[in-house]
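Re: the 92-residue chain
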Amino acid sequence: MKDVIIIGAGIGGLTLALTLHRAGIPCRVYELAAEVKGLGLGINILPHATKELAALGLLNALEKVAVSTREAVLCNLHGSIHYIPPRRTYDS
């Protein structure tokens, strides 16, 4: 079996690599950045993605550093509220 090639060691690429590893599928991850460092920004992880991280056994570690979203608001270009989706957890 040839290795799966993953381009990018961001949250998506690393999650895919862990999932493939768990399934016994060989992969290689390539990343352009020479080092991993904080960028001073946040990442919003939606419930379906949190479910995948939980399946990898990472939920406890995630909860230690996470700030839970209280509300998400989608606005138009003028700032008027377009939609407020219901808040969900990964198991709802």
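The first helix runs from residue 11 to 22.
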